[in-house]
Amino acid sequence: MAHNLPRIVSTTDLPTSEARWITLKKIKYLDEDGKERLWEYAERKTRAKAAGVDGVAVLAVIRSKTNAFPVSTIVIEQYRPPIGKYIIELPAGLIDEGETVETAAIRELREETGFKADKILQLSPITVSDPGMTNANMQLAIVSVVLEDKMEMPEPKLEAGEHIITRVVELNMLQGTLDDYDKKGFVVDARLSHFAAGFILAQQL
Amino acid sequence: MAHNLPRIVSTTDLPTSEARWITLKKIKYLDEDGKERLWEYAERKTRAKAAGVDGVAVLAVIRSKTNAFPVSTIVIEQYRPPIGKYIIELPAGLIDEGETVETAAIRELREETGFKADKILQLSPITVSDPGMTNANMQLAIVSVVLEDKMEMPEPKLEAGEHIITRVVELNMLQGTLDDYDKKGFVVDARLSHFAAGFILAQQL
């Protein structure tokens, strides 16, 4: 039965009291004018307390020791029920309790794509994904992956029921590749899309 | 009473039935193996039906006709109750019913910062901000702002109760500026952070 297209059976209102993974909150706050205001937002219930951050995304910079291919990165294709489509994202995952963000970045890249990072080149501060709507936060780890020679796709270590497709993309072709995905009915993650837009703009200026 | 620091008075659980702006949903779906699974997510109640997109963010490329300053962009500082801090973001807003995304981009830039875009350089496809947790979606508009000569900060057209501070940043200094904000206790939006990371990486490769 593997490799069917996922299909949504039903979408129903979820009472906050029955939700396991996320919840709704109401904030009462005083604004800059001292006026009392209300704000509604959604919150994950899973944030690891020690790390203080929900998740980490991984931008891999893949090079060949023999320059057998241009500097590349990895994107993944993954079905996301809230959108009902396959989304193109950076490899990413939630931080486990007791785990550092750096360890989670290297672990998630390995599990989802099979690629082994040899070092973290840069770790962003804690950033917020959609701060008008949720308190969800994340860090971006830019990691180095060095291959001996030509590109060979390693075996990922997916859990049962995890269906993730790995795609290696030349960094110079990233924006074009994302546009092609969009035309084919995939949807691109906004953070990945912003990364690609920044990459292209720097080359154009 | 203006220019106090905002302060959270209380944060309480919000029953889905009482929420006005967002809601929780439960999806029942069949995965690639044909196995029935559940997923929880949050949804905005405000999406304009015609546009099919929640919001638009605006990356302004500001130039001077006399080259009086380096190519720059605009970020805003805005208090976000779900985070309880000031967030550094691109100018952005929700699409009004009956409005195009392009019109909303130019309108929001004008209202929030006072700057007038002369044209849209690029409009991203519809992208998703945090697709594991919400169906929230957005587009990024890269717009051109041309000033006659030196930088002069225009007057924004903020609504009563809107407190947005505009900051013009040289594009080459964007990542450093965001890091400085983080050190001072601000929090940077993940999409803006990814844009800056892409911009810097392109210059380093």
From TrEMBL, chains A, B:
GO biological process, one term: nucleoside phosphate metabolic process
Domain of life: Eukaryota
Gene3D superfamilies documented for this protein: Nucleoside Triphosphate Pyrophosphohydrolase
Gene Ontology CC entries for this record: nucleus
Keywords from the UniProt entry: Hydrolase
Coiled coil ranges: none
Domain Nudix hydrolase: from-to ranges: 53-192
Molecular function (Gene Ontology), one example: ADP-ribose diphosphatase activity
Protein family: Belongs to the Nudix hydrolase family.
Protein name per UniProt: Nudix hydrolase domain-containing protein
Organism name: Hypholoma sublateritium (strain FD-334 SS-4)
